[in-house]
Amino acid sequence: MQSLLKIENLHVSVGEKDILKGVDLEIKQGETHVLMGPNGAGKSTLGHAIMNDPKYEVKEGKIFFEDEDITEESTDKRAQKGIFLSFQDPIAVPGISLGNFVRSALEQGTKTHIKLWDFKKKTKAVCELLNMNESYADRDLNVGFSGGEKKKAEIFQLLMLNPKLAILDETDSGLDVDAVKTVSEGVKEFRKNGGTLLIITHSTRILDNLNVDKTHILFDGKIVKTEGPELVNQINEKGFEDFIK
């Protein structure tokens, strides 16, 4: 399989604090990778650095996407290339509906006009999959949304945009059992359609119905352990202590 994302010796800081201290990671097309680790290890920092959040400064190292060096690329260019990042706590955007936001992002990514009929048809199919009312797409983006609704909105965006790589940062955090099931179905659908995943998580509930290819443990800014899906079970049984000594 072709390499989709490759990170070499990545060092990232926030302000004066060094967070990532030499991360190497390769994700191939169609794979599902899981990134776990204790609080403060740098997991979310890695996701934001891949997306080029300006608060996170790359001090050293390279990021390649489809064999192209994107280390200096802007966030919008990375999104157009097919990288998607969900957020732990998505911001509210008054004045723009969820549907219009997604339609605009689709048009920017494809450089084509999306017919309203085609967009509504796709919206209906995705809403049915996520057990959402279609009117949900007419609401202002995340305004007045509950925690579960925000996460559903992110998965709605994921399925509508269908990026090449989705980085899901604590997507199942704080959700009840039913909401986790809905989100998991959406993620499973994305994966079934050939999407590539990097799932950053503390909980493993979202992984129950996914075939995980590789599991990584991040500790103190470095990946200290990489194995297959069996590592998830070992972490559940023993925690991180045995792996970060």
- Backbone CA Rg: 18 Å
Shape: globular
Oligomer: single chain
Distance between the termini: 34 Å
Structural class label: alpha/beta
The major beta sheet can be summarized as: 6 strands, mixed
Helix content: 25-40%
> Which band does the percent of strand residues land in?
25-35%
Low-confidence stretches: none
Mean pLDDT: 89
Number of beta-strand segments: 12
Number of helices: 7
Strand order of the largest sheet: 6-9-10-3-11-12
Q: Which sequence of SSEs, written as H and E, runs from N to C?
A: EEEHEEHEEHHEHEHEEEH
What does this structure look like?
The protein is globular, with a radius of gyration of 18 Å. A six-stranded mixed beta sheet has the order 6-9-10-3-11-12, sandwiched between helices. It has a four-stranded antiparallel beta sheet with strand order 2-1-4-5, with helices on one face. Helix 3 (98-110) packs parallel to helix 5 (147-161) and helix 5 packs parallel to helix 6 (177-192). The two termini are 34 Å apart. The protein has helices spanning 43-51, 75-81, 98-110, 116-129, 147-161, 177-192, 230-238, and strands at residues 3-14, 17-28, 32-36, 57-65, 68-69, 83-85, 93-97, 140-141, 165-169, 196-200, 214-219, 222-227. It contains seven helices and twelve strands. The longest helix is centred in the last third of the chain and has 16 residues, at 177-192. 34% of the residues lie in helices and 29% in strands. With 245 residues, it is of the alpha/beta class.
